Amino acid sequence: MVQFKPRQHLPTQDELPETDFAPVDSELQTLVASLLGDLLAWHWRDRTDWFWGINLAVYYKLNTPAIVPDGFLSLGVEHFDRSDGRQSYVVWHEGALPILVVEYVSRSYGQEYGSKMADYANIGVLYYAIYNPVYCSRKRRQPLEIYRLEGDRYVLLEGDPVWLPEIGLGLGRETGTYRNCQREWLYWYDREGNRLTAPAEVAEQERLLREQESQRAEQALLAKQESQRAEREALRQAGQESQRAELESQRAEQERQLRKQLLDKLRQKGIDPDTL
To answer: By CB distance 3.0 to 4.6 Å, which of 88, 92, 110, 250 could disulfide with 57?
Structure first.
């Protein structure tokens, strides 16, 4: 006799906690992930097939506690799931695992090199990045380590930035300014290793270009005004020279007329001027 088994209920994001509610140890733990998300939102603004999560619970297996990365990227999913946004990231609802996870190492070591790495490998996350700018020497590690899942274990990738072909971007670190704070940040890079500019940087570049254009226009106006002034001065001087030449010509003509009159009077008196 065939027994009917009702379909197993799969919990939705509304029925699952959105995070583990563990406080972050450092402001940078959120800011580093926020900058990466802002960069994606700017450069992938025409795409709707990706999601960047920050401190959001990732449920990957039924009856298993979620894991909460500092930042993670998923591809092939809806960019904005619904009007109030995602409450959590539920793999069996999304249909895709995160392809990249980024963890920030803060003062309280969170097993980024230990159990977390093992968990992400067991889940099947393709890329795992550990950013440890402050305490890397304490762990004898590099400030940024990016791993790729090979089989069932992570293999450290060389380079900075590191090109991630499945994502179509590179990930690396560089000094820059974000939210008026200048320090080293994580950035995305293109295939040639050029850092993707942040929206604020684009706005600043546009502002500088506008200022340069304004300065060039002002300089051109000043140059035109100076040229016009020089032209007027030249005309004024030319006019004065013309007047002087005219006066000299008039004086010369007057002297010629006076000399002629004098010579005529001498001749009238019978005196030959040539004999004088």
So the answer is: 88
